Amino acid sequence: MDDLYLSVCVCVSVHAFLNYAESRLTQLESCRCERTCSANGVVYRDKELWVEPENCRNCGCMNGVVECRRIFCPPANCSEDSLSVHVEGTCCKKCRPKCTYMAQTLSEGQRLLTKRCTECKNGMMVRVTENCPELNCTLKEQILPDNRCCNICKGYDFCAEGLICGENSECKNRNTRAECECKSGFASIHGDSTYCEGRQL
């Protein structure tokens, strides 16, 4: 008698559990789970938009897929007394006041060392005082970088200063400065290699 009661009880329990499990599966099948995207270690919700300033792209999460487009930069139509230049932290060129000194054209903030250190400010070259750090290299191992007034040691990593290059270009250290260079298979867009696109075949 006890064995019969036990088998009926177990059978009813298993049947009840299976019914419960089946109803939960039915509920889950009707549930629409939100799709997400992961980019650069961040999880984004469906239809969420973000900007990748280091690659100069607008991105979005669309049905679980990351879609990105290069930020369109219209030409900077600058007046005669300004220059179209890349401004740190921005993707598109901006107009900045220019200075002309000894047949050289400089943009706002650029420096030049003649007998003393001068900087382009509001279209004029003004004298600035700069305390140069001590260097751990001989005079022969020192160079004067572009647009600066203090020497540095050869082999300096200019790219470590954070020059922004687009996703199809990369920062390259030159003798006295850093500059962007298009990756293989890509060509310059705006007359420099900060932003590059695939070459048309």
Notes on the protein architecture:
The protein has 201 residues and is of the alpha+beta class. Among the domains are: 39-70; 76-137, no CATH class; 157-201, Laminin (Ribbon), CATH 2.10.25. 14% of the residues lie in helices and 36% in strands. It has one helix spanning 2-30, and strands spanning 36-39, 42-45, 49-52, 57-62, 65-70, 82-85, 94-101, 104-107, 111-113, 117-121, 124-127, 142-143, 152-153, 169-173, 178-182, 186-188, 196-198. A hairpin with a 2-residue loop joins strand 10 and strand 11 (124-127). The model has no long low-confidence stretch (mean pLDDT 81).
What would a concise description of this structure say?
This protein has 201 residues and is of the alpha+beta class. It has one helix spanning 2-30; strands at 36-39, 42-45, 49-52, 57-62, 65-70, 82-85, 94-101, 104-107, 111-113, 117-121, 124-127, 142-143, 152-153, 169-173, 178-182, 186-188, 196-198.
